[in-house]
Amino acid sequence: MAGGTAAEGGAEKEDQRMQSQTGSRTALVEDLMGRFPDVPREAVIKEDLLRGGMAFDESALSGSSGTGGGEVKPKSYFIFSFDHRTLPELGAAALNRPPEEIVLTGGPYELRRTVVSVRVNPDSPYRVGAGDDGTLGLYLDGVRIADVGLPPMPDYYRHTLANGKSVMEVAPTIQWGYLIYLTVFRVCQYFGAKEECQYCDINHNWRQHKAAGRPYTGVKPVEEVLEALALIDEHDTARASKAYTLTGGAITSQVGGKDEADFYGQYAKAIEERFPGRWIGKVVAQALPREDVQRFHDYGVRIYHPNFEVWDKRLFELYCPGKERYVGRDEWHRRILDSTEVFGPENVIPNFVAGVEMAAPHGFTTVDEAISSTEEGLRYFMSHGVVPRFTTWCPEPTTPLGKANPDGAPLEYHIRLLQTYRGTLEEFGLSSPPGYGPAGPGNAVFSVSSFMDSLTG
Ligand code: SF4
Questions:
Q1: Distance from the CA of 196 to the center of ligand 1, in angstroms?
Q2: Are 136 and 222 in a shared domain?
Q3: Whose CA is closest to atom 4 on ligand 1?
Q4: Cα–Cα separations (whole angstroms), residue 384 to 43, 283, 333, 376, 378
Q5: What is the residue with the minimal CA distance to atom 5 of ligand 1?
Q6: Is 150 in the pocket of ligand 1 (CB under 6 A)?
Q7: Closest ligand 1 atom to the C-alpha of 286?
Q8: Band (73; pLDDT cuts 50, 70, 90)
Q9: Could you tell me if 310 and 357 are in contact, meaning their C-beta atoms sit under 8 angstroms apart?
Q10: How many Cα atoms occupy the beta-carbon half-sphere of 87 within 13 Å?
Q11: Quick one: 381 and 320 in the same domain?
Q12: Are both 241 and 268 inside the same structural domain?
């Protein structure tokens, strides 16, 4: 159960104590690098950037408003905002987008190539900017700790669809071009405080892009998706793109006369008919009954992500009230395991949001408890051959959990999770899940958590 005594002391307090004693985030990072030498140093930095964000000097912004001009691939806002401020609060970083991702190398920690998704936080102690020699670097507490590479603007982003929409709007790519991210339904039918997941800003992100006058298609027509994919197929001559993900909000009734399986499935069917086997097809959707899951597979989807979000029963009920009300946690888990009969256990990869276990006021107050709960969930799935994966929680300010926990979860939680994840995976004789590109420090491209950076390559 959640909780923990004041005497045990919260890990967040431990983070704060470490920082206030030494006055620096650097001390916290180096302390954890020293205490957990089996976790790659790259992952420590990456987790800290993902949980707390990074600031940008204006010189390090992409110089693109998202229209395809410029040399740097801009942040596409592919589903959630993944920022620590709202667009109106971001100023220049909103008008002149930051890059989608950055890649870190070198510096005093001798970082191997590390791809990190960009989450903007103007108050972060991490800052991306140009050094005296003009080259971009990542600065922590004012000290340069890595060289920074920016993703080049892909050729396919320079083209538009016949109706003028950009490829970035319809079919953005992430993970250094590996994954085409097709958020084909930009809102969620779990709506409002009593239904929305408490860490999710999908509906807010939709509203803020609309309010800013940005193109942001609510339901992407199948034909537009195919047209954008044709541009990617034609111009991605290095064939860096290897997979696509179909996703969006939960559908509790219908969209365009279709239920969730048929709605998301129709895109896979059209893609597989037009580009058979060109990419690995994945879908992130609710844990659906077996016959619906079968339809996904029949449509051509090969990897199914029925996300379990957070393991602890009480926290799931509190954080995912819509899912609890419509499906319920036990049934959700049963459906995840049932879907292995359709997809094979190795192709069922449920996500969880790493860090929300420790969100105040309901979460665990010690890292020990939070890790032990998460480990229980990992063991439950891995004992059935199912390998979950996780996204590092970004406490977006318009979500209830983000508002109450602007600093996110303690860094120690994230580091110990990486250790626990790898240990549990090895214990059950499993390896990294398919569809995530290469594993291992220096090789991984998965950008929204460092679980792939922490596994053996
Ligand atoms: S189901 Fe929850 S996490 Fe998924 S889009 Fe809806 S509110 Fe967000």
A1: 6
A2: no
A3: 249
A4: 27, 21, 12, 13, 10
A5: 249
A6: no
A7: 1
A8: very high
A9: yes
A10: 21
A11: yes
A12: yes
> Residue 13 pLDDT more than 60?
no
Q: Do 231 and 359 lie in a common domain?
A: yes
308 lines ligand 1 (CB under 6 A): no
- Looking at the structure of the chain, the number of domains it has is 2
∠ Cα 266 267 268 (to 5°)? 95
Q: Residue 312 is encoded by which pair of tokens?
A: 């602890």
Q: CATH no. for residue 236? A: 3.20.20.70
Q: Are 98 and 56 in contact (CB under 8 A)?
A: yes
- Domain identity same for 89 and 120: yes
Is a pLDDT exceeding 90 seen at residue 393? Answer: yes
225 and 94 in a single domain? The answer is: no
Could you give the percent of the chain with pLDDT greater than 90?
Answer: 82
CA of 266 to the centre of ligand 1 (A): 21
- Alpha carbon of 98 to ligand 1 centroid (Å): 25
Q: How far is the CA of 199 from the centre of ligand 1 (A)?
A: 9
Kindly tell me if the per-residue pLDDT of 132 is higher than 80.
yes
pLDDT of residue 208: 87
388 within domain boundaries:
yes
Cross-strand partners of 455: none
Provide the pLDDT for residue 418: 98
Structure tokens at 248: 């969006």
Of residues 214 and 24, more confidently modeled? 24
User: How far is ligand 1, taken at its centre, from the CA of residue 326, in Å?
Assistant: 13
pLDDT in tens, 136-159: 999 999 999 999 999 999 999 999
Is residue 267 one of the residues assigned to a domain?
Answer: yes
Full domain range(s) for residue 327: 155-427
Q: Which residues contact 153 (CB under 8 A, 6 or more apart)?
A: 64, 68, 70, 71, 72, 73
Is 410 close to ligand 1, i.e. is its CB under 6 Å away?
no
Residue of minimum CA distance from atom 8 in ligand 1: 200
CA 198–ligand 1 middle distance (angstroms) = 9
- pLDDT, tens only, 180-221: 999 999 999 999 889 999 999 999 888 888 888 887 888 999
